[in-house]
Amino acid sequence: MTGNDLAIRVRNVSHQFGEEGSTQFVRAMLETSLDIRRGELLCLIGPSGCGKSTLLNVIGGLLTPTNGKVLVGDTDVRGPLPQEIAYVFQENALFPWSTVLENVNLGMMFQGVPKAEREPRARQSLAAVGLSDFANHYPGQLSGGMRQRAALARALSLETGILLMDEPFGALDEQTRMVLGEDLSVLLSRTGKTIVFVTHSLGEAVFLADRVAVFSARPGTIKEVITIDEPHPRKPGFMTSEKFTSLRNSLFALLHEEIRKAMEQSTASERAARRGAKS
Amino acid sequence: MTSTAYPAQPPNAVPLGRRLKRWFLARPGVARLGVIVLLFIAWEIAARFFVDKIFLSPPSIVFTSLHTVFETNGVPNALRISASEIVAAFAMSVVIGLVVGLAVGLHRFTHKSFMPIILLLYGTPQITILPLFILYFGIGPASKIAFGVSHGIFPIIVTVVAGVQNIKPILLTSAKSMGASRWHIFRWVIFPHMIPSFFAGMRLGMTGVLLGVLLAELYVSTAGIGYFTTLFTQSFNPTKLLGLISVLAAMAILLNEIVRRAEIHYSRWRSD
Amino acid sequence: MSAEPESAVSKSAALKSATPKRDRSALGSRAVQVAFVIALVGLWYVGTTYGQISPILLPNPLRVFDELVDVLATLEFVTDLRITLTELAIAFSISAASGITLGYLISRSQYSIRVFEPLLAGIYSVPIILFLPLYILFFGLGPASKIALGVTTSFFPIILNTIAGFGYVDRIFVLSARSMGASDYQLFRWVLLPAAFPIILTGLRIGFTVALLSILGSETIASLAGLGHRIVHLAEGMDTARMFAYIAFAVAIALTLNTVTSSLEARARRR
Q1: Does A168 touch chain C if contact means CB atoms closer than 8 Å?
Q2: Is C119 in CB contact (< 8 Å) with chain A?
Q3: Which of B43, B134, C32, C220 is most buried (CB neighbours < 10 A)?
């Protein structure tokens, strides 16, 4: 695989918070390497605290890893790359004091898009996510699903090659997730962007991704990468197919023991904390 | 055999400067103390070298001469009287505030009728009627207590009403479903629920009482604290004036702190 | 289906049950309020007209009204009002400018917030009126001491609210803006400022109200001019009826200013 086929190269990245020996020391992620192909949709999945969000933040330049580096194209990632990477957060990062349209415009202004181009691109992105009628609404007036659509529109309008999404549907109910997932698949099959997507949901991972990287429990690293060989856009029928079920099952098998490990870790640390508090 | 002439530096030694900085960064409380010390030093320097002696006195002199303030004839008595005025006004505010608050808050009708009147009174500048209080109650402690009460009752009434009104209806419903009488509901549901708000109100009430009593005291320049502040001001004695003000400030801080601690203690069950 | 006879009784009964209980009690409480005020004023009138209350202690409401009309008609209030309002304007401008500027600077780092915020909150818990004799000593009985006290009192709510507004902007907004390439200025102008604005506005309203109160207070306690002083002057001259008129006037001014600032704040926060 030549460098041109790879959008992102993660090289031996590990990260820890705090200093060794201090009470706030957390080893967030063990040494991890990963190649992400141009135009693919890669999912990062794993138990809580495994480091998947940390890895996403490192890729996006929002966090400098304590070890290792990330290459986007030929550049070392040292900070946000607004021209290359757009980020969709889990919680609502839409500015509540601006309308949906203003939010999308602001994103482009920050990136440096000239004023004349902003309005048409904004309208286009909003149409792509189905929010044209709500351009002048405030985020507070919209439902959770619509807000995430707006956040997606803002990210799309930046016309970056790479899109990072940190559990974008995490705060939504199952039915909204299903609908948004289908819409996302349709949308993204048209744009050809490279997407890295963090999720907790097995079904979401199998439905949307080309490859799924499974993390081990904290401190985590990538345990295995599963390939999902199914063309985009994914049809709703795919979800009920045998192929889907067997892929989902293999994912479940990989994850299950890691999730158990993570649970034991957290109860053990809770017990230790309570013991420490009592003494 | 190798021996080292000097003790070897451990390979990961952090330079002293950076260690100090990190130590300070971890302790904002120490930095805060540092700021206070710096302010006192600035006061000291300004008073000694830049400002005329009749206008400002340095802290070193103010605090070492505190005893002269207390030795001034009548000051300890005035302070004692002021302190008792504050306590009396606070006690009365709490009782009146609680009674009126409960009376207004417990029934929807009284709440609707009287709350707007209370809020209107709460929002008027009572300072404008201070001369009236003195006119009616004289220049002795009565007017100071009355003015203190008139400042202290309103936050207490408002918070007691809020505490009674803000009960989640589900709590009342579940009590009723278990067969609680009206008295039971008041004694075991409404009253305990209202306590944290009541204590918050008392904290604000103490602030109000302090304001009211001090305003009245400062206004009456012929007796009490007001007499001495006027005396020290007109005789250009910043040392004694600052000393007296410091004592009053310390008293206010102490009283505020007592009520604040009580509030924290009695609001422990609150999760908000 | 049989037709119901539309008798007057059943119609009013239907109307009564159609009017929600809510509206009827609202009418009732409004009536109580009106009755309360009328009773108070009535008692006042009856007590002073037919009772033995000395006019120096409690003047007749009609006389107070006459005095008020006189004060307004002869424009006697203008000098004092102008002094008080000028002191207020100057004091508020100084405290707003300094409070917001310093508040913004302090909010720039979590550390400086942790150092300074408790300090400022602590000083604010001391009754600021205690500073007045100091200012009188320093500035004399003129407007300067009133302005100084006004600045001191209103500075704290403004700076504390500014720190709260700028310092506690949800980190996700900053992160999001940075990830899209926002410069420092863009971050301030489009994220920090709009996020902090409502809170700062509340601080300004509180600061304004508190400045007015402390200026009136200092005019009452030690002054040669202004509305507060006028009231005291009339009290000392035993001209109680005119004093009542001025008190009513001052309260009206204060309430008007309060209402104006509150509605300005509400309009700016309408989202």
Answers
A1: no
A2: no
A3: C220
